[in-house]
Design a protein that fits this description.
The complex is a heterodimer of chains A (about 230) and B (about 110).
Chain A: E1 9-15, H1 19-31, E2 35-41, H2 47-53, E3 57-61, H3 67-80, E4 85-88, H4 98-109, E5 114-125, H5 129-146, E6 158-161, H6 162-166, H7 177-188, E7 192-200, H8 203-207, H9 212-225
Parallel strand pairs in A: 1-2, 1-4, 2-3, 5-7
Antiparallel strand pairs in A: 4-6, 5-6
Helix pairs in contact in A: 1-2
Chain B: H1 2-21, H2 26-44, H3 46-56, H4 61-109
Helix pairs in contact in B: 1-2, 2-3, 2-4, 3-4
Classes of the chains: A alpha/beta (about 230), B mainly alpha (about 110).
Chain lengths: ~230, ~110
């Protein structure tokens, strides 16, 4: 599995008002030979234009729906276009494109259908202590509710096989999708493996990150979803 | 007597509403129906409400009835929240189809 993987590896980049960051992200991914699909989630800036100029396929939501909805749109689009491997990747520049190779390699080596990036097995640059604590609590909650022994729950860098992707049907439009996705991985019964990755925080990515208030909303979203069909 | 009839009609309306919601939100529908049915019972047997209220430390039967009413109101609010969520899911499906169709047509014209 190398960079010249023609059209079998699709990298899905959900983006909302990411015009300042999207170009280097797309360029780096395309340079490595991946098909890049940017899901523009109703941005008010020129995220879509810049991504398209950079060579990405752009799927544009007519209104802002949330990162979970954008991911599901990207996964669906990639499956329709014959993707064999799907990678999810944040648009704010905090992920390293070089880690994708390790994720894809882990899928093959472990015969798994999901490779989940873990910053706690790998490394972080500039992560605030409050963010670390928040993520630890989220990880503990996910372990409790899914039974998955994982070290990092809200990491947007992950890879999945085509078979794995068909099990993903996110209904949580906003940030609760990360927990929902792990529930679906657990329920699918397919194999998963954690892979060390590096997350590089910048003032830009931190400003777009999650707060304690968001975490409470995630809990509420996950709870109410169980109450209706 | 008039108050009992009016309250029974209101609670009866809630039971019908909750029953109609059971298919979509079974837990909320069943709890609402059960709570409203208890409300109807207490409207027609206020002495039972008073004795139960005294046993659980509320004081008066009418207060117990008010508490039940508050619970029903909260359940209805929760149900409205879930309805909004269901509407959002439909909007999401629609927006997704539009987005994918747009991207598909752009791919074809390239």
């Amino acid at each position: 599995m190398g960079p010249k993987t023609d059209k079998s590896v699709w990298v899905i980049v959900p983006a909302y008002n990411e015009a300042p960051a999207i170009v280097p992200v797309v360029n780096d991914l395309i340079r490595r030979g991946y098909v890049v699909a940017v899901v523009d989630d109703g941005s008010g800036d020129d995220t879509a234009v810049r991504a398209r100029q950079g060579g990405a396929v752009v799927i544009a939501h007519p209104v802002n729906l949330g990162q979970g909805a954008a991911l599901q749109t990207g996964i669906r689009f990639a499956l329709r276009h014959g993707a064999q491997f799907i990678v999810t990747f944040d648009a704010d520049g905090q992920h390293r494109a070089g880690d994708i190779k390790n994720l894809l390699g882990a899928l093959e080596a472990h015969r798994a259908d999901f490779a989940l990036g873990s910053r706690f097995l790998g490394s972080t640059v500039g992560m605030p202590a409050s963010r670390r604590l928040l993520l630890r609590v989220a990880t503990w909650f996910t372990r409790l509710t899914t039974g998955m022994q994982i070290s990092d729950t809200h990491n947007g860098l992950r890879a999945m096989t085509r078979r794995g992707a068909t099990y993903i049907a996110l209904r949580q439009n906003r940030m609760a999708h990360a927990s929902e996705l792990l529930h679906e991985v657990a329920q699918s019964g397919l194999g998963y493996v954690e892979v060390p990755v590096t997350i590089e925080y910048s003032p830009y990515s931190l400003a777009k990150g999650q707060s304690v208030a968001n975490s409470l909303r995630i809990l509420l979203d996950l709870s109410t979803q169980r109450l209706h069909r | 007597m008039i108050a009992q009839i009016v309250l029974s009609m209101l609670l009866g309306g809630i039971i019908i509403y909750a029953w109609s919601e059971c298919a979509r939100a079974p837990i909320i529908g069943l709890v609402s129906m059960f709570t409203a049915a208890i409300g109807v019972y207490f409207v027609w047997f206020p002495s039972e409400a008073s004795s139960l209220a005294a046993r659980v430390g509320i004081g008066r039967g009418v207060d117990l009835f008010l508490y039940i009413w508050v619970v029903i109101s909260l359940l209805v609010m929760l149900n409205l929240h879930l309805k909004l969520r269901a509407q959002l899911e439909l909007i999401t499906v629609l927006a997704r189809e539009i987005a994918i169709a747009g991207a598909d047509s752009q791919s074809r014209t390239k």
